[in-house]
Amino acid sequence: MENIDQVIFYKLEKAIRSYRQFAQRQIKTSGFSITIDQWLTIQNILEHPGIKQQELAEKVFKDNASITRIVELLVKAKYLKRKVHKADRRRTTLIVTKEGEEVVEKVNEVILQNRAKALQEIDREQLMAMDNILHIITTNCQE
Amino acid sequence: MENIDQVIFYKLEKAIRSYRQFAQRQIKTSGFSITIDQWLTIQNILEHPGIKQQELAEKVFKDNASITRIVELLVKAKYLKRKVHKADRRRTTLIVTKEGEEVVEKVNEVILQNRAKALQEIDREQLMAMDNILHIITTNCQE
DNA sequence: GGATAATCTTTGACACATCAATAATTGCGT
DNA sequence: ACGCAATTATTGATGTGTCAAAGATTATCC
Predict the structure, then answer these.
(1) What's the half-sphere exposure (Cβ side, CA atoms, 13 Å) at A124?
(2) CA–CA dist B97, B36 (Å, integer)
(3) Residue B122 and residue A133: Cβ atoms within 8 Å?
(4) Given CA atoms B70, B76, B79, B83 in this order, what sign does their dihedral have?
């Protein structure tokens, strides 16, 4: 047996990529043309109205540049609107349109199904343990 | 406590991204200008001489298009050479240059250190358990 | 042995990641 | 007030991911 240290990151990549491919495929075959990142972005704006892009970036674990571009596409798709922030003109206020809300709500169901499918046959105790390990890895890498 | 199903994929992404950022930063500050994916690609060619790009893609869990582009950059960097396969002219034979070998060898050490750091304070039994879960997720997403 | 199918790789189009540099605006110190 | 630092967002450059289509070559089948 190979040393687990030397393969675990590969396995991590593989699992997350399998899930992403699977999830994106499901969304597509359900008739939506939105990416998971875009869905997650809108979701977070809804949950935190008035959030600034910088905070948004942290929430979805991306950087500012990526957020700028994702927002751009979402505005083009008419799922978001930009407004200049009243008190601070450096900031942008992001507003989810009715279309945006509708899409997110519908895609939500698909995502729930995806997660259930992906986690089939795994017991919750083990998941909690994994969550713990992931947390340690994350902090180990942030010093 | 939130439902673990609804956050575990987020945690997965976060952990893998933290590790990637950390690892790439370490490689850079060690004086190398190679990406982890490029390193992994060369590594696999060395381990499987004469491998075809399609198989290579599977090994590093990418698709053919990505491999084509990574190889392109590695040829530019003079870490790889392309040759037409003798028996089958559709194929490309990939050859690692001396420079390529040297870089990989040196970067290897950095990567070993990175992994050790990232897995600090985690016991191996738990890692094995996580490996198992990751495997289940991967197969659940591939039907 | 010539049409057709299968295999291997590349290319195009678009989305996202990362780093560094640049605007634009606000806040602070004196 | 003024200059300068800090904050917020955008842009440019380069690398990777994904899907679909196309090119090139080889295998198959009648």
Answers:
(1) 8
(2) 18
(3) yes
(4) positive
Distance from C-alpha of B90 to C-alpha of A71, rounded to nearest angstrom: 42
**Residues of B 46-85 whose CB lies less than 7 Å from any atom of strand C:** 52-54, 64-65, 67-69, 71-72, 82, 85
A12, A37, A113, B102 from B124: Cα distances, Å: 15, 33, 32, 31
| Contact criterion met (CB below 8 Å) for A131 and B4 | yes
**By C-alpha distance, which of B26, B49, B48, B23 is closest to B37?**
B23
pLDDT at B1 over 60: no
Rounded CA-CA distance B18/B91 in Å is 36
Q: Residue B56 in contact with residue B41, Cβ under 8 Å? A: yes
Please report, as a single letter, which amino acid is at residue B103. V
Tell me the one-letter amino acid at B101. E
In whole angstroms, give the CA distance from residue B58 to residue B143.
Answer: 17
User: How close is the nearest chain B Cα to the Cα of A60, in Å?
Assistant: 8
Give A80-101 pLDDT, tens digit per residue.
999 999 999 999 999 999 999 9
What does the DSSP 8-state code read for residue B66?
Answer: H
Write out the two tokens for A81.
Answer: 């609107």
Tens digits of per-residue pLDDT, A3-32?
888 889 999 999 999 999 999 999 999 999
Amino acid at B1: M
Tokens representing residue A5 in the block: 């240290």
Please tell me the distance from the alpha carbon of residue B12 to that of residue A15, in angstroms, as a whole number.
9
The residue type found at B25 is R
pLDDT in tens, A28-78: 999 999 999 999 999 999 999 999 999 999 999 999 999 999 999 999 999
